[in-house]
Specification:
Layout: E1 6-10, H1 14-17, H2 23-32, E2 36-44, E3 47-49, E4 55-56, E5 59-60, H3 66-73, H4 80-87, E6 92-97, H5 103-113, E7 119-123, H6 126-135, E8 141-145, H7 156-166, E9 171-174, H8 185-189, H9 202-209, E10 215-218, H10 221-228
Parallel strand pairs: 1-2, 1-10, 2-6, 6-7, 7-8, 8-9
Antiparallel strand pairs: 2-3, 4-5
Helix pairs in contact: 2-4, 4-5, 9-10
Length: 232
């Protein structure tokens, strides 16, 4: 019997609410019954926030206080603590660390407020992944791999898996195009637990679900849930 596939709402159920990385979108992911909510963590001038972009206009996020960030973004940007307290006991956490150097503070917050919550920790930054792996928190630690600018050359996925092993990461989170339509993908994964992102097309969802993956990250968790539950 195939293992259960984790349904991961990308920045919450943002495709449904018009918001992302907000408590409103995270609440919608909880209502839908998603397994995890994926969110980004960055440092603002006066604390850690859940926000995707590194700048607001021309201002680096690290130069803005949280109140100013909220005013400029026009969104109720939550702090990491607010997100952790909101999600605790309701939904798993897929935490993407955007800024190198904050991983210890993020891990401490997760341990404090969500000790009994399922957690995935990941980053595009190899030094962050290595640092997280060295903490031995017991949480799965993953390497994010970006969407290729051009069609991925043969062996790109295999190289990403090799990087995971070198960094002591326990899962890979590649852009789905590194897997899509490639018969060699399964062999190149070499058994590495894999969570592709960000998959919104139902046909692509079905094709990827046929591969030995652990979960899918999507802006449309409602569609993915229907497919996983056998509704379509």
């Amino acid at each position: 019997m195939k293992a259960k596939i984790a349904v991961i709402a990308h920045r919450g159920a943002s495709g449904l609410t018009g918001e992302d990385n907000t408590l409103r979108s995270f609440g919608r992911a909880v209502e839908l019954g998603c397994d995890y909510v994926e969110f980004d963590v960055r440092r603002a001038r006066d604390g850690l926030v859940c926000f995707h972009d590194g700048h607001v206009g021309r201002s680096p996020l690290g130069e803005l206080k949280i109140a100013e960030l909220r005013a400029r973004a026009g969104l109720p940007v939550p702090t990491l603590q607010e997100v952790l307290e909101f999600c605790r006991g309701k939904i798993g956490l897929d935490v993407e660390i955007k800024n190198p150097g904050i991983e210890g503070e993020v891990a401490a917050g997760v341990r404090r407020w969500c000790a009994d919550t399922p957690v995935l920790m990941k980053s595009f930054h190899e030094d962050v992944v290595a640092a997280l792996a060295a903490m031995n928190t017991g949480w799965p630690v993953g390497l994010l791999v970006a969407r290729p600018v051009i069609a991925p050359p043969g062996g790109a996925l295999k190289a990403a898996v090799a990087a995971c092993r070198r960094l002591d990461a326990t899962f890979l989170s590649p852009h789905y195009s590194l897997l899509a339509g490639r018969a060699a993908a399964v062999a190149e994964l070499g058994g590495m637990p894999t969570y592709p992102w960000t998959v919104n097309d139902p046909g692509e969802m079905r094709r990827l679900l046929a591969l030995p993956i652990r979960g899918l990250i999507t802006d449309r968790p409602d569609l993915l849930l229907e497919i996983v539950r056998g509704g379509t």
